[in-house]
Amino acid sequence: MSDPKRVAIIGAGMAGLTLARALAGHATVHIFEKSKGIGGRMATRRIEDISFDHGAQYFTVRDPRFRDMLNAAAADGAVERWNRDIVSLPAALQNEQRANDARYVGKPGMNALPKWMARDCDITFNAEICSISGTPGNWTVTTEAGEDGAFDWVIATAPAPQSAALLPPAFAHHAALQTTRMNACFTLMVTLKLGAAPPFPAARLDDPVINWISRNDTKPGRDNVPSLVVNAGPEWSARHVETPLESLREQMLKAVRRYIPLENTEAESAVIKRWRYANVARPAGQPFLLDREQQLASCGDWCIAGRVEAAFQSASLLADALLPALRETTP
Ligand SMILES: Cc1cc2nc3c(=O)[nH]c(=O)nc-3n(C[C@H](O)[C@H](O)[C@H](O)COP(=O)(O)OP(=O)(O)OC[C@H]3O[C@@H](n4cnc5c(N)ncnc54)[C@H](O)[C@@H]3O)c2cc1C
């Protein structure tokens, strides 16, 4: 028997972790993650002891394999339904499809699900891959700290523009990466005073600046302090990608005040985050990008749609296609 193939996965978000779990036992898999934590855009952060889901707000489930995994995570307490109603302001915005889907969240924070998925994964954090070099079957990935080599396969799960910049020119699917479009999004996190919470758990908004306000504390297992997560709309975010954050923070706070009477201290404590590649405006139109000859691949939500479940599906389908190649013996 020949040695198991070595696979490098770039990114420890939903796609990278799904892939690592699916390939485990069939290859030696190592994940390189540029940030210090797990989950990518399934993100949770603490500000003065209050936690905020400042990336994905919730996820829906239709794929049977995704459902199976969530059932297992739920049995371990890492996922729960978020049953609260989302209102639309104005009410005419209501989208029946969205309203009828059951919504789930990680517990106690959105990143609890990726953390649960990563339990047996081999991950190097603070490892931003800046280049991939070598030849098919013998790839080297380079970080600021140095090189790691002799990978049979390298798979990039970073957002499409970042994967495009990383994958060598020989990768056969650069055209699909180039046609993919991702939107920016600004997220504002606000801690409210007890008793100052808005009368809705979450709202979709028809507003020129913001399109979403949720009360993070209405999700299961969160801190019992009213806290808001506010998202800016895609058009406004696209116009302001390079605008200084402080000015955007003020504009978002002004927009929030159209719905909730914030006090000064609450506004002062608000923190803004820029997601340069948050959502998918135009997907790649293929469930994954696989170059068998170069032994390079790429996957992520941007292949299908800007949803957590789409990231899972893209990676699961890529794993299905890759497994036979990983079983082939090296000549
Ligand atoms: C504000 C916001 C709100 C959202 N709301 C929802 C929602 O309500 N419902 C829903 O279903 N989805 C939502 N989404 C989308 C959802 O978060 C994504 O679809 C999903 O998390 C994408 O997973 P992924 O693994 O494809 O990508 P990512 O989560 O982006 O993972 C990619 C990983 O690659 C890492 N990486 C990038 N470059 C490098 C490099 N050079 N070297 C090493 N590592 C690298 C990144 O740090 C990241 O961890 C939202 C996203 C945002 C930002």
From TrEMBL:
Pfam families: Amino_oxidase (PF01593), NAD_binding_8 (PF13450). Residues 104-323 form the Amine oxidase domain. Gene3D superfamilies: 3.90.660.10, FAD/NAD(P)-binding domain. One of its GO terms (molecular function) is oxidoreductase activity. It comes from the Bacteria. This is NAD(P)-binding protein. It comes from Ferranicluibacter rubi.
